[in-house]
Amino acid sequence: MVTASHNPKQDNGYKVYWENGAQIIPPHDKGIALAIEDNLEPWPHAWDDSLIDDSPLLKDPFSSINKDYFSDIQTHCYHRDINKKSKLKFVHTSVHGVGHEFVQSAFQAFSFSPPLAVPQQKDPDPEFPTVKYPNPEEGKGVLKLSFELADKVGARIILANDPDADRLAVAEKQESGDWKVFSGNELGALLGWWIFTCWKEQNPERGAVKNVYMLASTVSSKILRAIAVQEGFHFEETLTGFKWMGNRAKELIDQGKSVLFAFEEAIGYMCSPLVLDKDGVSAAVIAAEMASYLATKNLTLSQQLDAIFNKYGYHISRNSYFLCYDQTTIQNLFDNLRNYDGDSKYPKLCGKFEVTGVRDLTTGYDDSQPDNKAILPTSKSSQMITFTFGNGGVATMRTSGTEPKIKYYAELCAAPGNSDYNQLKKELNDLADAIEEHFFQPEKNKLQRKVD
């Protein structure tokens, strides 16, 4: 699959899927690379396109896959009568990508009125002329035209896909008139709660929940874990990226388990196991149904998010990154963390915050395990260290696989009943500031800060 994804227009790439429908993971990536290296010289008839017409290998599966896809997502429509009568208006942008027609069809499959499309961004355009980065995760800058249209037509909800429509951002107009753009973790909490709530209504029998699983990447919020503890289903973490979640979901399904939902903080959601990858189309229409249902209870998405946090514990996150184009600097930064308090001694403190646990998926070290060996797969070719703190905070630092970024993901997980949001937010910001100052040392390492 060739895709520009959410990257700048200069970038093009492709995704490779295995026969199980999920993106490739080891050892298939190395096997394919070896096959390419063994075939660097084109075969004699490689450019004779007349051979295509008679080849039994040539099939266009679009119609059948399209039909199966929309048949499947209809099984996740639980409130069709509410959808038909919904007074909510939705604005949708595909950010110059391919999502428009599919989201329109998804809304039709759920018996919604069609969402209003941002006209300047409705059709595919590889130049992405209205945005610097066609990534809805960047927030309000990418959504400027969506805000303008929504304000004009009186829409309260904005749904935004990236150009290949595998990601989804959602924004909601607040009573103050301001727009709240939900973070990937916040929308993950909402969708996870909603999908489990709908499942529970359809499966009231005791014991059924023991067969249910939800997944999230290790750098994403732990809110699904908190919900699982109270509700009784299983929660698992995987390495970063849907290739890991998709393959793990397939393994569980083959074992007869029910995988309801998977998400990553980078606004990626798998709301149906028919697609073993993040899918912004099904996520968009399921989010619309959730918002419409809540509206019948006089609730907004923001209010429901607060209700989730009040019941299961506040999970507040702050994610950011630094740019670094020098691989030696990156290596030295992470080596310093591994020898922070002497040879092979990870830090015990980060500013005033006590470090209570370390997992290093580059070296395979995990001090929470009896043998100090990490359970998750490790990779020496990428940097990734997770720190656990005495105040309930968790922070992961890692390098990006596609961009010159060193990212961090910090979250404060509070116990149910601790609803002092402002104090929790201050504590998280103090922790994230300490991580930047003491672990990244941006001035010493000449790192460029993220520009909002």
TrEMBL record:
A GO cellular component entry from the record: nucleus
Annotated Alpha-D-phosphohexomutase alpha/beta/alpha domain residues: 1-39, 68-173, 184-312
Phosphoprotein as UniProt keyword: yes
Keyword Mitochondrion attributed: no
GO terms (BP aspect): carbohydrate metabolic process; purine ribonucleoside salvage
Molecular function (Gene Ontology), one example: phosphopentomutase activity
Family to which the UniProt record says this protein belongs: Belongs to the phosphohexose mutase family.
Name of the protein described by the UniProt record: Phosphoglucomutase 2
Species in which this protein is naturally found: Engystomops pustulosus (Tungara frog)
